[in-house]
Design a protein that fits this description.
With 737 residues, the protein is α+β, with helices and mostly antiparallel strands. The protein has 5 domains: 1-59 and 206-317, PAS domain (Beta-Lactamase), CATH 3.30.450; 60-198, Beta-Lactamase (2-Layer Sandwich); 353-515, Reverse transcriptase/Diguanylate cyclase domain (Alpha-Beta Plaits, 2-Layer Sandwich); 525-627, no CATH class; 645-736, Arc Repressor Mutant, subunit A (Orthogonal Bundle). It has 25 helices and 20 strands. The protein has a 7-stranded antiparallel sheet, with helices on both faces. Strands 13, 16, 17, 18, 19 and 20 form a 6-stranded mixed sheet that branches. Strand 14 and strand 15 form a beta hairpin. Helix 13 runs antiparallel to helix 14 (452-472) and helix 16 (529-541) packs antiparallel against helix 17. The longest helix is centred in the N-terminal third of the chain and has 57 residues, at 2-58. The protein starts with a helix and ends with a helix.
């Protein structure tokens, strides 16, 4: 018995160790493979960014002219073009901070251009600033005619740079020509330190004996670290075991997408054994403990004739909860299905909520006439098909002032939610209910037999008002449009509903006003809607003088026309007051901070005099708001121009788009702040910098032109002469004298 137990323990422990070793190896290799894929993608992105720089340069007309130029006698215009290319080259490579040095060689001439300057003789550059140990610039150019690829590498080798010394560096070459047989070509060379590339692959975090190498598209090794051979491994799979110098490695390979480099990482298999040494020691302890425990149990079972086994099993079964679950399998299944149904219900609620939000957004845009594109109309008709038929639009005012505690007024925002929920519960699913803002809910009422749905809506409003009046002594007021048909008439119906809302007296017992056409209407519709709309627009921009004249016209009309009764004066008063309150809400002002007049049975002159005072107060605050906003905007624009005036592309469209304003408004703000036009202001900033740079005689005038944001030397000379009536060179001579 004892021997059997010991054999079982040892027999199960050994496979357990090897299984754990296999699991550890698999997990580690998977992690390294995932990490290598991510690092290879990063390396590929860097090389592809460099290639994109070459692609952009290849389209530059100035570079094309330099490529075609032959000979050593370089004309003066070419110096300007070479410096322009150097500046463009530098700006394009700024995001690629891994590059140690970059230059462009030309096959037809001795010209060489770097990111900092240009050379008339490329040998000067290779003698003074940069040296390859075993390759010349002519040999690099020969590669451009012999190599079959558009981009290739010079393998890692010692390269000396004047500022950083000698290091192993990789050279990435890109042909600035579309055909390898074309001799009017140039080569862009980007030199990258080997250590920087290894840092991309986190070489410090790899095991000590791990190796890594990179091959080009032909399988030649262009960079290696700890790899003992000069030939690449033959890998048929992305993860495979290979024996190198009598040592087993797990080789992981990954190929870049764009540049087609192959990166191979080798991890010694001994690394996996080393990581499991603590587990191996734990298993040994476990075996020793198990053997000792087996001896004790065997002796005990022998003495008791194995009788305790049954008692032990019974005791274990009594403790485990499995027994209860076994008796209630159907309850377990039911509980699982309940959880599934709950998750499904939650998901359906989320989907329904998202659909409601989409419907509200579409309906809100439709009310304002902001849906014009065919795709948007199709989506609207799919989610709100009611707009294709006949309907009415109802506008519900949900802003209330509740007076309690010594007439202290406060706004109850939760009433809006209560009204919305009551409408959702009481109305049919084909009603469209959408809260437009904090003070307005809009309902689309579909046409029905004998206006059943319209009557249902009216009864629902009456129920809401009954509850509201009992709780807070307030009532909602509603405006309803006449019957309309089709999606294109939604904005018109909405405006009719809002107009009816203006005509509804909050203090009257009639809380619902239906729109009536002019041939059916009473005298109340003699209010000039266009004039009311004009007043609203003028308040929004703070034009108080024009508003006062319009209000005077309304008062004169009320005073002279006998057809207007006191009822019409009251309705007109409420319409104007509603317009003022709407403008206050539009600008997010606190309505309690304004003195809003209340209606009383006085003359039209007195009533509208109070409305004028309120309008002037509102317009004054709106003007102050615009003024303070304009000051901040002007300062931000001027600050932006002051920082970027050296950018040759800083024009009005760029600045206007940056600050989300129109070009016309931009011109106006610059003129107000500086007294100059936009172009004149930018030119004055550039000229200030030009004058400072001209004082330094070591800076060529051509470099000053590009450094100060001028697109060409010609435009620079014209601008300078226009400002100072002399050429830049003459100014420099006069300054030196």
């Amino acid at each position: 018995m004892y021997f059997t137990i010991v054999m079982i323990i040892i027999g199960t422990s050994c496979p357990l160790y090897y299984k754990m070793l296999d699991i550890a190896r698999t997990n580690t290799v998977t992690e390294y493979h995932s990490s290598l894929k991510h690092q290879t993608d990063n390396f590929d992105k860097i090389l592809n960014d460099i290639y994109n720089v070459a692609t952009i340069l290849n389209r530059d007309n100035q570079l094309s002219e330099i490529k075609l130029f032959k000979g050593n006698d370089i004309p003066t215009p070419f110096h300007i073009k070479m410096n322009n290319i150097s500046n463009i080259f530098k700006n394009l490579l700024l995001p690629v901070d891994i590059i140690d040095e970059a230059f462009i060689l030309f096959s037809n001439s001795n010209i060489l251009i770097t990111t900092t300057r240009s050379f008339l003789d490329k040998t000067d550059y290779f003698k003074t600033f940069m040296q390859y140990d075993d390759i010349s610039c002519d040999e690099i150019l020969n590669l451009a005619h012999s190599d079959k690829y558009q981009k290739w590498f010079i393998m890692t080798k010692p390269i000396t740079l004047f500022n950083t010394g000698t290091k192993e560096r990789l050279t990435f070459l890109t042909r600035l020509s579309t055909q390898s047989t074309h001799f009017n070509t140039a080569i862009m060379c980007s030199v990258i330190s080997k250590q920087k590339i290894l840092n991309i692959f986190n070489i410090d975090k790899l095991p000590l004996e791990a190796f890594i190498y990179i091959t080009d598209n032909d399988g030649n090794i262009i960079l290696k670290h700890n790899y003992p051979d000069n030939l690449a491994l033959s890998l048929k799979q992305s993860i495979i075991e290979k024996t190198i110098n009598n040592k087993v490695y797990t080789a992981i390979s990954e190929t870049s997408k764009n540049v087609k480099c192959n990166v191979v990482l080798g991890i010694p298999n001994s690394y996996f054994h080393d990581t499991l040494i603590p587990i191996k020691q734990l298993i040994y302890r476990y075996i020793f403990t198990a053997i000792l425990f087996g001896i004790i149990i065997s002796v005990f079972f022998t003495i008791k004739s194995y009788a305790p086994i049954k008692g032990l099993l019974k005791w274990i079964l009594d403790l485990t909860p499995y027994k209860d679950y076994k008796k209630n399998e159907f309850e377990c299944i039911k509980e699982a299905f309940d959880k599934i149904n709950l998750s499904k219900a939650n998901l359906l609620c989320e989907v329904k909520s998202m659909e409601d939000i989409l419907k509200n957004n579409l309906f809100s845009r439709l009310l304002r006439g902001n849906i014009h594109i065919k795709d948007e109309r199709d989506i609207t008709l799919r989610y709100i098909p009611q707009v294709e038929g006949s309907y009415r639009v109802a506008a519900i005012n949900t802003r209330f002032n509740i007076y309690k505690n010594n007439d202290t007024s406060y706004t109850v925002s939760m009433l809006n939610v209560m009204i919305y929920n009551h409408l959702k519960e009481s109305l049919y699913d084909d009603f469209v209910i959408s809260p437009i803002d904090a003070s307005l809910i809009v309902v689309l009422i579909p046409e029905s037999y004998k206006d059943q749905k319209h009557n249902l809506f009216i009864s629902t409003i009456n129920e809401i008002n009954k509850k509201m009046y009992q709780l807070h002594r307030v009532k909602v007021i509603v405006g309803i449009s006449d019957l309309s048909t089709g999606i294109d008439h939604i904005p018109t119906a909405f405006n009719k509903a809002r107009f009816c809302l203006m005509l509804t007296d909050p203090q009257s017992d009639i809380v619902v006003t239906n729109f009536k056409r002019s041939n059916e209407s009473d005298n109340s519709h003699l209010i000039d809607i266009n004039k009311m709309q004009k007043i609203y627009e003028l308040i929004l921009i703070g034009e108080s003088i024009t508003i006062n004249s319009l209000l005077d016209e309304i008062v004169d009309c009320l005073r002279q026309n006998e057809i207007y009764s006191q009822q019409i004066i009251m309705q007109t008063f409420f319409v104007v007051r509603f317009i003022i309150e709407s403008a206050i809400n539009e600008h997010d002002f606190d309505i309690e901070s304004f003195s809003i007049p209340k209606y009383n049975d006085t003359t039209a002159d007195n009533l509208f005099m109070k409305l004028k005072e309120t309008c002037e107060d509102v317009c004054s605050r709106i003007t102050s708001k615009y003024h303070s906003r304009n000051i901040v905007l002007k300062e931000n624009i001027i600050s932006y121009i002051n920082k970027n005036y050296c950018n040759p592309n800083i024009y009005a469209p760029l600045i206007a788009d940056k600050f989300n304003i129109s070009e016309k408004y931009l011109y106006k703000l610059i003129k107000e702040h500086t007294g100059k036009s936009l172009s004149s202001y930018i030119e004055s900033l550039r000229m200030e910098k030009v004058i400072d740079m001209l004082k330094d005689i070591d800076i060529p005038i051509v470099n000053i032109s590009s450094s100060c944001g001028f697109n060409s030397a010609n435009s620079f000379y014209k601008a300078f002469k226009r400002c100072y009536s002399v050429s830049p060179s003459s100014y420099r001579k006069n300054f030196q004298v």
